[in-house]
Specification:
The chain is of the alpha/beta class. It has 2 domains: about 25-355, Alkaline Phosphatase, subunit A, CATH 3.40.720; about 370-430, no CATH class. Helix content is about 30%, strand content about 20%. The chain contains 13 helices and 16 strands. It has helices spanning about 5-20, 50-60, 75-80, 85-90, 105-110, 140, 185-200, 240-260, 300, 325-335, 350, 370-375, 415-430; strands at about 25-35, 60-70, 115-120, 145-150, 170, 175, 205-210, 265-270, 280-285, 285-290, 300-310, 315-325, 360-365, 380-385, 385-390, 395. Helix 7 packs parallel to helix 8 (about 240-260). The longest helix has 21 residues, at about 240-260. It is globular.
């Protein structure tokens, strides 16, 4: 090496380091509504609900048209947190095995400050004879979260609900709350305080909301909130209020980011864990959608996904390709440059304007092991945006038959449909053979 290059090398090295240090890692906030299909947001065309804040976030980022979840809460939580198909690591409803490495662990190992708030339901409360450490209140910490504020950690639903006068465990303590306290307010206040305290370093917040799960009850903004006798009287009339309150809470988080000048370099993600409850009918411009939570049809797994990152994402984008729940873990792994095993496909390049090859297919393995009502829908499927195949050979054109009433016969397929079916058969063959 020439002498003058040797002389300049230290300066070039430190200049390079300084440039990298100036690239601050983005904060990440992942909000997941409970039992909210895509049809519950006006950003997706809903005329039953008005969600201006979430719609505004969508207009400043990317609205994903085809995000595929699991059909039920725990299967979705296990998949999104670990990035793995359920046949690899799902053992009991309401449980996540401690052998698993979650995106909380991933982000913590990458140097992020981490917290979780909202619905837990992963300690195995319903299987206390089989899962002997079900009452371990450090499980969130073991899964990578420095701090937590959670419902259904070591206390069952029968011991305390999630909305009015909630039963919430926070950083090892059961909170002393009153009848007018509202669970979603407790969780969002915890998150806002965490942001205030951790604003000077990169943070990762996972917020699996308790809204809009049943019971459908008044919110503090409902006209009937003051009537304490109906605080837990299930009435679908209040579903609209619960959607509005979800939008309000997202606004509180968004406003905190603006207040602290963190909005530009924060990846804000909003999704839902599965389809809407079957008692809820929602109106889109040209159709009425009945929720199909627990079911493998489109209305059971088609959830909203909206991502904002003002510093990187060009506003007003709509992505029509497939995203599945294993992809979130893979995306965070690529963002942090961490080596971690996953079944997912990172969509991080979509956020940064890089090259991205869209998924051809999405895959779901669904064996909830939770009661006759949902176990009857246990199944596998793989799909493109418009077609879907089950292991028993039933093949559907979702554009013409969204409720999957009329499977296509092999004799009726066009050349393109035969190619699509062959592609989906190849995808099913990659996974364990389905057993009824």
């Amino acid at each position: 090496m020439k002498a003058w290059l040797l002389y300049l090398f230290p300066f070039l090295f430190f200049a390079s380091c300084s440039e990298k240090e100036q690239e601050n890692p983005p904060n990440v906030i992942l909000i997941m509504a409970d039992d909210m299909g895509y049809e519950c947001l006006s950003a997706y065309g809903s005329t039953s609900y008005h969600t201006p804040i979430i719609d505004g976030i969508a207009s400043q980022g990317i609205l994903f048209s085809n995000c595929v979840s699991q059909p039920l809460c725990t299967p979705s939580r296990v998949k999104i947190m670990t990035g793995k198909y359920n046949y690899r690591n799902y053992d009991y409803f309401g449980h996540l095995n401690l052998s698993q490495y979650t995106f909380g662990n991933l982000m913590q190992d990458a140097g992020y400050q981490t917290c979780i708030a909202g619905k837990w339901q992963l300690n195995g409360l319903a299987y206390q004879n089989e899962i002997l450490d079900w009452n371990d209140n450090t499980r969130p910490n073991q899964f990578g979260f420095d701090e937590y504020s959670l419902w259904q950690l070591t206390k069952q639903r029968s011991e305390g609900e999630r909305y009015s006068d909630p039963l919430i465990e926070q950083n090892g303590e059961v909170l002393d709350l009153e009848k007018d306290d509202y669970g979603p307010d407790i969780f969002v206040d915890f998150i806002l305080d965490f942001i205030d305290r951790k604003k000077d370093k990169p943070f990762f917040i996972y917020y699996p909301m308790v809204l809009v799960h049943d019971p459908f009850v008044p919110t503090p903004d409902s006209e009937t909130w003051e009537d304490t006798e109906i605080r837990y009287k299930n009435d679908t009339t209040y579903f609209k209020d619960m959607v509005a309150y979800t939008d309000k809470i997202v606004g509180q988080i968004s406003n905190k980011l603006k207040e602290l000048e963190l909005e530009e370099n924060t990846i804000l993600i909003f999704t839902g864990d599965n389809g809407t409850h079957p008692t809820i009918n929602s109106q889109l411009p040209n159709e009425t959608i009945q929720g199909a939570k627990g079911n493998t049809i489109d209305h059971g797994v088609h959830v909203p996904l909206i991502v904002s990152w003002p510093e990187k994402i060009k506003a007003g984008q709509v992505f029509e390709g497939l995203i599945e729940f294993s992809d979130f873990f893979a995306t965070l792994a690529e963002m942090t440059e961490m080596e971690a095993e996953s079944d997912g496909k990172s969509f991080y390049p979509l956020l940064t304007g890089g090259n991205y090859e869209p998924r051809e297919t999405a895959f779901v393995h669904y064996d909830p092991r939770w009661g006759e009502n949902v176990n009857r829908y246990r199944n596998q499927f793989t799909k493109t945006v418009e077609y879907k195949l089950y292991p028993d050979g039933k093949f559907f054109n979702l554009r013409d038959d969204i409720l999957e009433k009329n499977p296509l016969s092999k004799d009726s397929l066009t050349r393109d449909e035969r190619s699509i079916r062959a592609l989906l058969e190849q995808e099913l063959d990659k996974h364990p053979k389905w057993k009824k």
